[in-house]
């Protein structure tokens, strides 16, 4: 019975790792059997067996035309379930909406999840040409992109160093990213309070991110924007920083007021 329990736990962990990999954004890497099996470190036969089970249950789906795996509808449906943790995000999703409205650039709410950041909310700009390097539900490594870098910079030195060492082999998928550039970006974010990404993760895209007040001992949430790098200057950057600071401060003030009234 002990061995069966261990096997069941291992199967669940493997399935969860594969689902996270399907939702992961890593350069231009395809989400096919080969790339997924290599990413999770499992034989193709084992990965294929798990993927088939995930597809059979609706947690994953396979697109035969594109020959790649996608997150299934059951995963989406399960994600609609409301919990207290989800409700805690509501003030910050509203904050993201206001930042996007005022700045007229695509704005994201990123949440730290282990060694990754997942996009939990997106507010698009009104611009004709919009920059959308990541969609809601997609994951990326900490240090890849402005919001994910802001979250990494908010961690203690020992933890951030361990994250960088772990993800370093995966950074080859990005043209201008390696362990040294991530460390430099983390140092800059800690000094200025904002992380900036100028074509570092995605060519021709400028990103700006900052963490919001932690829901725990370490930062869990970051707000970031993404825009075409062409035409971005110091004046626009300072304007965006001001908008983000004002909206974050206003959200925190409202939360303090609500929490104070509840006590």
TrEMBL record:
Question: What is the top-level taxon of the source organism?
Answer: Bacteria
Which InterPro entries does its entry note? HTH_MetabolicPath_Reg, Tscrpt_reg_IclR_C, Tscrpt_reg_IclR_N
* Flavoprotein as UniProt keyword: no
Q: Which UniProt keywords apply?
A: DNA-binding
Task: Describe the location of the HTH iclR-type domain by residue ranges.
Answer: 9-73
Domain named IclR-ED: which ranges?
74-257
Q: Which Pfam families match?
A: HTH_IclR, IclR_C
The record's listing under PANTHER family reads:
HELIX-TURN-HELIX TRANSCRIPTIONAL REGULATOR, ICLR FAMILY (PTHR30136), TRANSCRIPTIONAL REGULATORY PROTEIN (PTHR30136:SF39)
| Protein name in the entry | IclR family transcriptional regulator
Organism name: Maritimibacter dapengensis
Its taxonomic placement starts with: Bacteria, Pseudomonadati, Pseudomonadota, Alphaproteobacteria, Rhodobacterales
């Amino acid at each position: 019975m002990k061995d069966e329990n261990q096997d069941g736990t291992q199967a669940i962990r493997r399935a969860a790792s594969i689902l996270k990999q399907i939702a992961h954004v890593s350069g231009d890497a395809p989400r096919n059997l080969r790339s997924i099996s290599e990413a999770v470190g499992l034989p193709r036969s084992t990965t294929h067996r798990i993927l088939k089970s995930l597809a059979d249950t609706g947690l994953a789906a396979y697109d035969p035309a594109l020959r790649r795996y996608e997150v299934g509808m059951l995963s989406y449906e399960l994600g609609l379930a409301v919990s207290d943790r989800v409700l805690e995000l509501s003030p910050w999703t509203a904050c993201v909406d206001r930042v996007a409205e005022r700045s007229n650039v695509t704005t994201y709410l990123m949440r730290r999840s282990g060694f990754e950041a997942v996009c939990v909310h997106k507010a698009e700009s009104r611009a004709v040409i919009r920059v959308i390097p990541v969609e809601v539900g997609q994951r990326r490594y900490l240090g890849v992109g402005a919001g994910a870098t802001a979250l990494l910079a908010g961690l203690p030195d020992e933890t951030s160093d361990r994250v960088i060492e772990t993800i370093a082999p995966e950074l080859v998928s990005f043209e201008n990213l390696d362990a040294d550039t991530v460390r430099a970006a983390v140092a800059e974010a800690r000094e200025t309070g904002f992380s900036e990404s100028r074509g570092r993760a995605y060519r021709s895209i400028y990103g700006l991110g900052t963490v919001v007040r932690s829901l725990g001992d370490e930062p869990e949430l970051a707000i970031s924007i993404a825009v075409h790098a062409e035409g971005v200057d110091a004046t626009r950057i300072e304007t965006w920083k001001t908008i983000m600071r004002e909206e974050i401060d206003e959200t925190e003030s409202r939360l303090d007021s609500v929490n104070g009234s509840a006590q």
